[in-house]
Amino acid sequence: MRGPRSFFCVFALVLVAAVIGGLSHAASPAKPLIMESEDQRLVRWDMTADSVTTLNDSEIMEARGNVFLTRGNEYLKADFVRYYMSTNWVYLKGNVLVRSAKDELQAEEAEFDLRSRAGWLKKGRIFMAGPHVYLAGERIDKHWGDMYTFKQARVTTCDGDSPAWSMTAEEAVVEIDGYARLSRSSFQVKDTPVAYTPYFLFPTKTTRQTGLLIPEYGRSTRMGLYYTQPFFWAINESSDVTLSEYVMEKRGFMHGMEYRARPSSDGAGWIRFDWMYDRKRETDVSSGRYSGDGLLRTNHDRFWLRGMLDSRLPDPNWRFKADLDYVSDQYFLREFKDGFSGFKRSREELFDFFHRDLQEKDQHRVSGFLLSRDFERASIALSSFYTQDPSLRHGNKAFSSDSTVQRLPQVDAFLYKGRIVPSLPLEAEANAQAAYMHRRSGTRGARYELIPRLTLPIGTRYGSIIASAGMVQTFYATEQPSRTTDQIGREIPRQKGHSRTLPEVDVAGSTEFARVFSLDPAPLSLTEETVGQSRWTAFRHSIQPRLEYRYRINDDQEDNPYYSSEDRLEPKSELVYSITNLVTAKKESVVLVKDENGEMTPTRKISYDDLLRFRLEQPYDIREATRVKDRDRYPRRPFGDIFSDVTFYVNERLSLSTRNNWSPYMNAFTRHQSGVTFSLPEYGSLYVGYDVRKALDEYTRKREDSVKYLRFDVKTASFGPLSLGASLKYDFKNLGNRETDIRLNFNHQCFTITGRVQMEPKEESYQLYIVFTGLGD
Fold it and tell me: Looking at the structure, do residues 352 and 294 belong to the same domain, yes or no?
């Protein structure tokens, strides 16, 4: 009986093993899961787990422990996974983590169609790294593509389980790289609701998007309480429009519209218009903010129109540029220099967009166009410019008295400097201009000018000499040589001259003496321990003396029309000497550089830094030395001020600079300007500058008032969440001309609070900005 019993036992063990073997097997790695996607492509998911069990004739696969389903850079991870072969659906439970190319999902439970990746999540959370947005909900349904619907949703850009701020909603529809549309939502600080809205649109993308921008608000003595709300409209990938409303308690409403377009890399357009009905006027020159200029402003309607355009014509050698700058009155740009509609923002944005600048806010405004074509050694340009004097009208001078010159039109031609004969060093250049000078009051007519110049550069081992000779030849075609007056009532002399011929000569010679002082330090070893270390290995000191003679013939030009300073070129006969000292350091550093195998290897790097630059210069006026006129009042002073310019770079953190003019006749500084810059990347930077200008009464120069002021600028790095910026301009001569600007920032991972105080003559402004990351920033 022992034999049959043994056989039976062995048979039973084999049968159990067979059954168990048919039900499960170790699955690390498991067989790949191959299926057809919705676009009829074969896709493959690989699954690994601690254990895998197949059920129902391999129609169902269950995996437990560290389950991973991977496909390229995408994966699904959970403690338990059940996969249905016939439908390609997968159920996940326990520490569910899903990573796709655009988002990361976490949940307690989830179910997905592996072909389309549609499904649902229970108590799920989605993180989008691009805009850094978290979305959570009790139940999340993922639809085909990148569309989600939420129940009991929460949206925030803050890290952590208890965010500093969040938007909650009963329902939400979210499109990845699109928007989150929240229904019956509230804004929460920590977990406390502070505001309710029936509908809210939240951006979940990093590209330009239509919506409200961060508002500006504050209080000032001239505006009262104010609030600016901009709205941004992304028309397409290359153009957009921004609308803004500026509400001022004491002044009224300002409406703004801005259009930007960049259809190509070399074509761009920008235009902005701001308009308001101002309740306040300046009807008394003694009571206004700018009472010193003696001007009024009686207008209620105020505006500023500005813009620029760059474009290429069908022939790419032709370029077209246009500028537009027109303002309602002389005070608009002074009063509205800050903020979203202000002068500073428009000026910076136009410079970034076109690399061209606007006129200063207290200068005339210039509009015009330029059509140009470049050749190999020449170029031509057709232009027209209108210069506006904003101080006309509104209780001041009438338009009929405007003597501002308008160039309508102007043609320029340029011949670039180059050799006449390749074998000879003689170089030629020239420029020519023809312009019609129009103005309402005063002489007007055409001006034609030709300026040719020959240059002979001679270089030897001992130095160089550059000699040049040219001529300014001008012709006038005057239309109105009658007697007129300027804007302050002075009579303008009869301007009936027809031409001028002004020869010019310039000869400059220079040389250099230099010596290198080697420190001969031991070379830095190329190891990981020396990466980042550096040392000076040598210094080079050079002395560069230079002597220049400038001459222009003395020609009486008083009968010629006066359109600009170019019509009154002063005669010259002066020598200018200068000596420049330059100290340069050679520095050796050890840096990490990627080698041919892609590995980072310590490498020696050589660089050169200027440590000291010291220049002395003084002119000698030969004409002043022989002057006879007004000698009883103004003694001859042919020697000009000794000018010194020193810049000392102590190290990367500290630099000193000073510019001084010393008069050998007054034995005093006529101007002194010094500054110190101290910078520590981990702490911030500090600049202190001091400027003094002495009042002068000389034959060749006059300055009625002395100037003495201090400038102070500080910027701090973040100390924890805080950073500070401040600037101060203190005028020691005019105590009312002081300006202070202080900015304090509180920086959080998902919001920033900025407080700003500005104090100017007759103006104080207080501003507070709160920017929530992701909400319009």
Answer: yes
For the chain, how many residues are written? 777
Residue 518 included in any domain: no
pLDDT (tens digit, 9 = 90+) per residue, 432-454?
999 999 999 888 999 999 999 99
Burial class (CB in 10 A: 0-12, 13-18, 19+), 270: buried
Q: In this structure, is the dihedral angle defined by the CA atoms of residues 667, 668, 672 and 676, taken in order, positive or negative?
A: positive
**To 10 degrees, the CA torsion angle through 62, 65, 68, 69?**
10
Residue 157 burial (10 A CB sphere; 0-12, 13-18, 19+): buried
In a domain, 258, yes or no: yes
Q: What is the DSSP string of 698-716?
A: -SS-EESS-EEEEEEEEEE
Q: How many CA atoms lie within 13 A of 65 on its CB side?
A: 8
The per-residue pLDDT for 407 is: 94
DSSP code for 350 = H
Angle at 345 between CA 341 and CA 348, to 5 degrees: 150
d(CA 190, CA 161): 10
Helices (H), 423-579: none
- The verdict on 153 and 228 lying in the same domain is no
Q: 299 and 350 in one domain?
A: yes
- pLDDT, position 30: 53
Cα–Cα distance list, 552 to 453, 502, 564, 572, 573 (Å) = 13, 7, 19, 5, 7
Contact by Cβ (8 Å): 506, 549: yes
- The string over 715-729, giving b where at least 16 C-beta atoms fall within 10 Å of a residue's C-beta and e elsewhere, is bbeeeeeebebebbb
Are residues 727 and 741 in contact, defined by beta-carbon separation less than 8 angstroms?
Answer: yes
pTM of the model: 0.78
Dig out the tokens for 771 from the structure: 């920017």
Residues 290 and 395 in one domain: yes
CB 664 within 8 A of CB 694: no
Q: How many CA atoms lie within 13 A of 547 on its CB side?
A: 3
Answer whether 445's CB lies under 8 Å from 560's CB: no
Looking up tokens 């957009």 gives: 240
pLDDT of 644 reads 96
Claim to verify: residue 194 and residue 266 sit in the same structural domain = no
The residue range of the domain holding 203 is: 27-209
Instruction: Find the distance separating the first CA and the last CA of the chain, reported in whole Å.
Output: 89
Q: How does residue 21 score in pLDDT terms, banded at 50, 70 and 90?
A: very low
Contact partners, residue 628, CB within 8 Å, separation at least 6: none
Residues sharing a CB contact under 8 Å with residue 735, sequence separation 6 or more, in sequence order: none
Cβ–Cβ < 8 Å for 181, 149 = no
**Listed residue (249, 246, 245, 244) closest to 279, CA to CA:** 249
Strand partners, 438: 406
Torsion sign (Cα): 600, 602, 607, 609: positive
- Rounded CA-CA distance 65/537 in Å is 62
Give the residue from 455, 450, 456 showing the smallest Cα distance to 502. 450
- Is the residue at 171 inside a domain? yes
CA dihedral 52, 55, 60, 66 (to 10 degrees): -20
Last residue of a domain, one of 187, 209, 231: 209
Instruction: Answer with the one of 381, 402, 423 that is the final residue of a domain.
Output: 402
Q: Which residues pair with 61 in a beta bridge?
A: 54, 83
Distances (CA, A) of 136 to 127, 311, 772: 9, 48, 19
Helix (H, G, I), strand (E, B) or coil at 79: strand
> Is there a cis peptide before residue 409, judged by omega within 30 degrees of 0?
yes
For residue 482, give the amino acid letter. Answer: S
Residues 231 and 379 in one domain: yes
Q: Give how many domains the chain has, as a whole number.
A: 2
With tokens 């009929």, the residue in question is 400
Is residue 472 within 8 Å of residue 502, measured between CB atoms?
Answer: yes
Residue 736, pLDDT score = 62
Strand pairing partners for 314?
none
